[in-house]
Amino acid sequence: MDISIIVPLYNEEESLPHLAEWIDRVMNQHHFDYEVIMVDDGSKDKSWSVVESLRASNPRYKGVKFRRNYGKSAALNVGFTHAQGDVVVTMDADLQDSPDEVPELYRMIMEEGYDLVSGWKKKRYDSKIAKNIPSKFFNWTTRKMSGIKLHDFNCGLKAYRHDVVKSIEVYGEMHRYIPVIAKWAGFSNIGEKVVQHRKREFGVTKFGMNRFVNGYLDLMSIMFMSKFGKQPMHVFGLWGSVSFLFGFGIVVVLVFRKALGLMNLSSSVLLPLAIFLATMGMMLFLAGFLGELICRNSPTRNEYLIEKVEL
Ligand code: UDP
Ligand code: MG
């Protein structure tokens, strides 16, 4: 199969029929062998009956329905596990992403050798204050922290090589950082394509302001897990030792000066600092050590993503 299109949806009953018609038109024009996986993230409207009727009239349509709302990341993750296409495309259900972009995304993966191509909503039709400005800042920090040169990390329209979606796992609010997760999994050939963006015609946006707080916390955990997830001692042990040695060094100096009668220990501000540094150091070291013990017991400690084997 050439293409799997994954559509996460939450209360999008009005958009779905239009989206399906548009996808079918583009796919048939280009003679693609395709499937559309609609993941209903616990919708409370009639979205699921729309999915069922699409499925009934066209076996290329597949549907998964969550019992309750788990979030876009969860919906994408389920789509990823079921996808069979050589190229997997994710697309929002609200008609803000255009299916017309899919053939070119497919070509970039198959012919230009990208592992992942992310859409870039260069001209964006969303509210300026609630979306456009905060998202510029969001993209800037993510670029700096991850070293991936994308303008628009959070674009719902993305295309992946089959192997990529089978090697990564998304949960929480991590869908914003899929390029970061993919890079960490070893897929570093990440490209970008300017895509058409449109105004939301039906329904309302599902993401409020809390996405910023949660989003940044998720970025921290991704960066931290990718850098130190397998070796917590390397970060905690290092900084613990540094802090402890500083504290200890100060104590040694103080004791010497006291012994030589050069100073009165009780009036020195250095003493509490020394105690603080030494205690901090031991705590950090201990955190690293506990982290290592937990890693040792993790059932996934020896799971690696293997690209090729010849045995
Ligand atoms: N979505 C979802 N689960 C959620 C929230 C959103 O599956 O909990 C879907 C939603 O139906 C849409 C896509 O994710 O297809 C993007 O959501 P939305 O358009 O609300 O985000 P925005 O474009 O405003 O950033
Ligand atoms: Mg939208």
Description:
By secondary structure, the chain is α/β, with parallel strands linked by helices. The chain folds into two domains: 3-228, Spore Coat Polysaccharide Biosynthesis Protein SpsA, Chain A; 232-296. Helices cover 49% and strands 12% of the residues. The chain has helices spanning 15-29, 47-57, 72-82, 102-110, 128-146, 162-167, 178-184, 210-228, 232-259, 270-297; strands at residues 3-9, 34-40, 61-65, 87-90, 116-120, 158-161, 190-194. The chain has a seven-stranded mixed beta sheet, sandwiched between helices. Helix 1 links the parallel strand 1 (3-9) and strand 2 (34-40). The longest helix has 28 residues, at 232-259. It is elongated and about 90 Å long. The protein starts with a strand and ends in a 14-residue tail after the last helix. The mean pLDDT is 92. Uridine-5'-diphosphate (UDP) binds next to strand 1 and helix 3. Magnesium ion (MG) binds next to loops.
What is the gist of this entry?
Helix content is 49%, strand content 12%. The protein is built from ten helices and seven strands.
Strands ordered across the widest β-sheet: 3-2-1-4-6-5-7
Uncertain runs = none
Top CATH class of the largest domain:
Alpha Beta
Spatial extent as radius of gyration: 25 Å
Count of separate DSSP helical elements: 10
CATH fold assignment of the largest domain:
Spore Coat Polysaccharide Biosynthesis Protein SpsA, Chain A
Strand content: 5-15%
Q: What do we call the CATH homologous superfamily of the largest domain?
A: Spore Coat Polysaccharide Biosynthesis Protein SpsA, Chain A
- Tell me the structural class: alpha/beta
Record field, number of beta strands: 7
Terminus-to-terminus distance: 28 Å
Count of domains: 2
What molecules are bound to this protein? uridine-5'-diphosphate, magnesium ion
* Named CATH architecture of the largest domain: Alpha-Beta Complex
Specify the biggest β-sheet: 7 strands, mixed
Series of secondary-structure elements, N-terminal to C-terminal = EHEHEHEHEHEHHEHHH
What percent of the residues sit in helical stretches (DSSP H or I)? 40-55%
Q: Summarize model confidence as the mean pLDDT.
A: 92
Shape designation: elongated
